[in-house]
From TrEMBL:
GO molecular function terms noted in the UniProt entry: ubiquitin protein ligase activity; zinc ion binding
Zinc fingers typed TRAF-type, residue spans: 73-117, 127-182
Compartments where found: Cytoplasm
InterPro entries on file: TRAF-like (IPR008974), TRAF1-6_MATH_dom (IPR049342), Znf_C3HC4_RING-type (IPR018957), Znf_RING (IPR001841), Znf_RING/FYVE/PHD (IPR013083), Znf_RING_CS (IPR017907), Znf_TRAF (IPR001293)
The protein's name in its UniProt record: TRAF6
Provenance organism: Acanthosepion pharaonis
Key words, A-Z: Acyltransferase, Cytoplasm, Metal-binding, Repeat, Transferase, Zinc, Zinc-finger
GO biological process: innate immune response; lipopolysaccharide-mediated signaling pathway; regulation of canonical NF-kappaB signal transduction
GO CC aspect terms: cytoplasm
Top-level class of the enzyme under EC nomenclature: transferase
Amino acid sequence: MQTECGHRFCKFCIERWLSDGKKKCPIDNEDLTVGKMFPDNFAKREILSMKVRCPNRKMGCNTCVELKHVEEHTESCPYHYQPCPNNCQSLVLRKDLEEHLQSECCKRNFICSFCKETMLFELYGDHEIICPARMVPCDLCKEDVMREKIVEHVATTCPHATVKCCFFLLGCHKEIKREKMEKHMKSNVQKHLQLMCCAFGEWDDVLTWPFRGKIVLSVLDQNPVADQRQHAVETLVSKPMLAAFQRPTTHRNHKGFGYMEYVPLEVLDNSTYVVNDTLILKAQVFPEV
């Protein structure tokens, strides 16, 4: 501020001088009131034109600007601290903000590389534990399997999972690891065939017992040329007095009746009876009328 007597003072300082009851100019002791002072625009222009360093020089900014442009410079200064726009409570230098938002901010959007779900990065740790698409080791065979597929893997393909024999309901109560099931099936073919032929069925209540009639068994020739097929056919005539033809009371009737030998293995080998590792048996039942 400038007084009528031509002296210049800081506005704050001279107003405090006057408020203390001192009504004289500190320089020449002339009478002085607030009404006898006015802004010194010339001094103001001089001061605002002075070169000053950026307030962020301690952060690394070496820019010098006129005092009147300091605020404008600060609004774009790369070394100015500003709060993260994601409200993560971090103060970041403007020049580092992009990197912060892309790789450091805990509230940045993050895409799971396994299931492609988008979430806040701060939630990814919890998501990682339950992510359905993440690969995890099977507890049984240690093979890496997608988490959401673990149950299916154990139920269908895990070699160390314990499974029941395919003929479990018919009486073979073997429960072994899946990797050993093929060997079990190959070494128990005769036993399994006996179970198939001697098991009781869901329609036993409506059948007439003991069984009287005949059963025609056929091993079907799978030759793709129909005219060249030669099915192996045998006919078995029932003997009602035998236990084998009484109504079954268990899954397996140990009083079975049939053929000790049917089709020799040498006939089946390298023949069209077995195609794609499959043998087709056909049973036709003809009860007496």
